[in-house]
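A quick word before the example. In earlier lectures we treated sequence and structure as two separate objects. From today on, think of them as two lines of the same record. Here is non-reducing end alpha-L-arabinofuranosidase written that way.
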Amino acid sequence: MTTFTRIDDGETPVIEVDALKKLSKIDPMIYGGFTEHMGRCIYGGIYDPGNPLSDENGFRTDVIKALRELNIPVIRYPGGNFVATYHWLDGVGPRDQRPSRPELAWLGTETNQFGTDEFMRWLDALGEGREQRVEPYICLNMGTGTLDEALAWVEYCNGTRDTHYANLRRRHGREEPYRVRYWALGNEVWGPWQVEQATKEDYARKAFQWAKALRLLDPDIVLVLCGQDGTSSWDHHVLHECVGSVDMHSIHIYTAAKDHLRNVTAPLSAERAIQAAAALIDVARIENKVPPSKPPTRICFDEWNVWDPERARGDEGAEERYTLSDALAVAVWLNVFVRQSRHLGMANIAQTVNVISPLMTSRDGVTRQTTWWPLLLFSKYMRGWTLGCHVRCGSYRGETQPAWLQGVLEEGAPWLDVSASVDDGGMVSMVVVNISETQDLEAEIRGIKAPVKVYHITGPRADSVNVEDKQEVAVEKSQWNGEGKAVFTKLSMTMLRWQS
Ligand code: AHR
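And the structure line, produced from the sequence above:
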């Protein structure tokens, strides 16, 4: 949590941080990813057989190498909207016998050349050499899918007995169970774009029954309820009906605005959404008399990002060309997650390759977009515990996206958006995003200790981009002796790291 006092612009900002004020554990799962059968995410992104950069499985090795830098803990699959008409059995077994099907979320053709076994193999490749594997997180089809089909999928992945689908997996060459722990009860079932959209009442009834059956089959799974944006009557109702049957509550938010200040402050709406969802969870647990011994029901923010479908390219309006403004918005998103870590069990940037993604592929290689850099620094260093800090600075008090945000930000959005963490070795990391387009800000930092490692992300303009032949935004590293004031240049994210 970060507290904030507004001062008049012109006075010296002050940031106070105390390495002893540990607030809550940061779950490493907040740095999760998401790969959907959508646009060029799977086909032409992670799976590209015949490309010289691909291995014998058809996996792009340049993509795997790049993504390893992010140390991703978990990846959600196979959708998204795609999952509402997906039949997992189409995507297993000999490739030449897999059916091609019309796909109704993005109106393409699904060849099923990449399915559950390929996904699991790809995660193995991604996690190679790491202590902990990359966890799979599978979303169940609660559109055209049946409970029988969902149970069969869990059995295929996790079954250890001499049973039909466990044996099918064995016949497909995988003796050991995949041990998939994380399962989502549908995706955005409330959305009018969804095949088999449901009312909150119908969804809650069904999710309750599915959860019961899935747990009878495998008591070790972690079940994620399909929420909306954390603030709606859908969230309220489904939590009330199902809180005792699930482990996490999913919410989705994408932010974007044409002008920089609305774009960069929009992720603060997600902070409010997390607080609102956490309150709804508390109410649902109290109303249902969920025993306090049952672990907290945490939020699974399993789709988040900056996304403006109007400006994005590609058939699905999802190939974003991210700007410096977007990179700073992603930094504010991640500051929000660190500040609200107490409520979060997982978060997944949507998505991991090509589709609204920090990483883009061409036939010849990969490009790290502007948003790659904040994600990389957070995933590397903002781990351990959230630290309490206090920021005194001026604030932006103009229009916001969404408009209601202006009403809840009583003191405005601070020009310096801050979060801080301390890891188990006592290393403090503090991120300061100067959202201003015009003013460099000097701040007194209380609680800092030299020597300080400095990582700085900026670029020439708010609309600077990283494309194949032009890299305008990157990380610059330096050292600071901690004396005097720190300078946070306009349009920048700075990470300061020191040993406490
Ligand atoms: O991530 C892209 C799409 O956005 C997902 O398929 C859907 O769940 C959301 O609306």
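Notice the following. The first strand starts at residue 2 and ends at 6. We will return to this example when we discuss secondary structure assignment.
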